[in-house]
Design a protein that fits this description.
The chain is an alpha+beta fold. It has a single domain, classed as outer membrane lipoprotein receptor (LolB), chain A, CATH 2.50.20. It is built from 9 helices and 12 strands. The chain has a 12-stranded mixed β-sheet. A hairpin with an 8-residue loop joins strand 3 and strand 4. Helix 7 runs antiparallel to helix 8. It is globular and about 65 Å long. The relative contact order is 0.22.
């Protein structure tokens, strides 16, 4: 697949120490396709129900081995954001440029995941901003433009993901898995035909609930379907939704997902002055649109050179001896 991942230095760093440093962190291939398709494909698509079309798109997502995608919208705690990213599924690796409202003047946050390491560069290494969190200074960075953090994980089950607060949790999950959430809707309906990124698509919409996804998981009759529904349920929970998720899904004439949009209120957990958990309150909404730009085309994820990378564990160890 043209995948290239440079060797990463294996060094484990305590999650608690790293969280203090970077929380809030600055903190069959379908190709590029213009979406040309035969009339036969369009007629076949018209003959299936909305639920069947959504289920087929979810099933076909298992065949995605690499993806270039774009995210726009807003998420809790970070506000408006834009993301340009590419990923491979085996071995799992990702490169991303993330821009949030408070970073626009300084450029995007550059992120790489490869092996068990997270690499952060760009605006995250602004020493003035990091200085308030980790007190890293220019002398410690010694001209290096990337920070390496281990162990880290992205795109897996939410309990395994660890970006140390560098990424909003809504973009820690794989967009391939997130695209299957509409299978948990019991009111999916067809909206209209639309063109997305040059491809002719059919627009579907439905309401996704925890119960709907759990019912779909329990109704799955084969191992692959159960695993897919389990992953979908996990990603639904990771979004931190207060109740329901409104989801729009655009499927092309070949039955493939080309875009999805997720909208819903989130909850915010809190504790009392004596540390006891309080009833969650409604937090900021999520409204995030993910567009699949290129599917199953070669993706290269190259990590920074050792000479341009500062190991966060080594920096912390140097301070404590």
């Amino acid at each position: 697949m043209g995948m290239s991942v440079c060797r990463s230095v294996s060094r484990r760093v305590a999650s608690a120490a790293l969280g203090v440093v970077l929380l809030g962190g600055g903190a069959g291939a379908c190709g590029t396709g213009a979406g040309s398709s035969s009339g036969g494909s369009a007629e076949a698509a018209a003959s299936v129900t909305p639920a069947e079309a959504v289920a087929k798109a979810a099933e076909d997502s298992a065949d995605i081995t690499s993806l270039h995608y774009r995210i726009t919208g807003s998420v809790p705690d970070r506000g408006r954001l834009t993301v340009d990213a590419a990923m491979n599924t085996a071995p799992l690796a990702m490169r991303m440029e993330l821009t949030t409202a408070d970073q626009r003047a300084k450029g995007p946050l550059n992120v790489r995941f490869a092996g068990k390491a997270l690499y952060v560069g760009g605006s995250a290494l602004d020493t003035q901003k990091l200085g308030k969190l980790a007190k890293l200074d220019a002398e410690e960075l010694n001209g290096r433009s990337w920070l390496r953090i281990e162990p880290a994980a992205w795109g897996r089950l939410s309990v395994d993901n660890q970006s140390y607060g560098v990424l909003p949790r809504q973009v820690e999950g794989s967009p391939i898995v997130q695209s299957t959430l509409l299978t948990g809707s019991k009111n999916t309906k067809k909206i209209e035909a639309e063109t997305i990124d040059g491809a002719r698509t059919t627009h579907y919409r439905g309401t996704v609930t925890f119960k709907g996804l759990r019912d779909a998981q329990q109704a799955a009759t084969d191992k692959a379907s159960r695993e897919r529904q389990t992953n979908s349920l996990d990603q639904f929970m990771a979004l931190g939704l207060d109740k329901n998720l409104t989801m729009d899904l655009w499927i092309d004439d070949d039955g493939r997902t080309r875009q999805f949009r997720m909208r819903g209120a989130t909850y915010k957990a809190s504790v009392s002055a004596d540390g006891k958990p309080l009833k969650p309150v409604v937090g900021d909404p999520i409204d995030m649109t993910v567009t699949f730009l290129r599917i199953n085309e070669p993706v290269t994820v190259t990590t920074p050179s050792a000479g341009d990378t500062a190991d966060l564990g080594a920096l912390l160890d140097a301070r404590t001896g």
